[in-house]
Specification:
- It is a single chain.
- This protein is α/β, with parallel strands linked by helices.
- 36% of the residues lie in helices and 14% in strands.
- The protein has ten helices and twelve strands.
- The protein has a seven-stranded mixed beta sheet, with helices on both faces. A three-stranded antiparallel beta sheet has the order 9-10-12.
- The longest helix has 37 residues, at 233-269.
- The model is unreliable at 316-321 (pLDDT under 50).
Length: 373
Amino acid sequence: MIYLDYAATSPMSEIALDALMKASREFYANPAAGHKLGKAMQAQLEKCRQCFNDIFSVGEKGTVVFTGSATEANNQILHQFIKGQGTIHLSRADHPSIANTASWFRPERMRFYQQAGGTFSPAEILAEIENCDVAVMCLVNNTSGIRQNVEDMARLIKEANPQAWVHIDAVQGFMKVDCDYTCPWVDSWSLAAHKIGGPKGVGALVLKNTKNIKSFLKGGGQEGGLRSSTVPLPAIYSFTAQVEDLRATSQALIKEADKKSDFLKNFLNQQKGIEVLFDGQNKSPFIISILTKGVSSDIVMRHLGEKEVMVSTSSACSSRVKGDSAVLTAMKLDSSLHKNLLRISFGYQTPLSELETFCEVFADVWEDLSFLL
């Protein structure tokens, strides 16, 4: 099988899997327990937290809260502002855990900025920013793969309104694109382990300042009172092991991914009826979206699947939504083309040989479907 849906989730790396097995055997006690073993688990948990503190330069006023997912982290941040009076700035092109929370807020508070061609407009985000409670941006869009300049945008927001909270969903970009994670104008970041080869069921909310932040889940007051639930130390340990490995290797792996991406795009650009979207923009090399003109991408996906090649037609979190894509509408892609979008996404672990095989299979499938063109 050739798996090219890493933007939905990635298989666990050997490093993460070994760490998960080790921790599951050895780190089974509850870190909140008062006995000697529980305290040892808490110490191990803090070692994991320190890894992320170092990457994001989290000071004494902040912390890293380990969550069950990035969806939970995004929800926790946005939930803080339900009772506010200011505006909420976000994009319908963002992940559903951001865009769909709009239903929490009064319509007059919402400010949706568009992402024509996949990139956001600073002017739209900054409109009425003086009244903003929270502005949310994605580091990398999960459909287009475009890497947004969130660092500069955060600076502009803070210069116009120092009180506005700036939150970055870094799920698709963390350890996959160059980014200044120490950016002083960003208040919080959300991460997900399973997007980078770690286990499912664990994420992180990086907070530069915990003032006025309340727990989204009520219960035992774990994670410094910011996230109630038994802490899944084995999953966190595995997540941390994967991050520590990528800290040492990601720059070289990103350069290698650039070459793999160029190889795929060169092949796809030679196929009649195929258009590579958002090419030439600042993108994550790991995500390539194309239009299968004249043929529904669902048909192409099914035919590829029959040959054991897995790609997707949308974000997995939006795959059950019928009708026009809110993401593609926000990117100003004509609605008549929504049914033709196919997303190919690979990971660090994907060898070039698999991409070469994908090209051979895709060429055969596309030729078989050419009668539809």
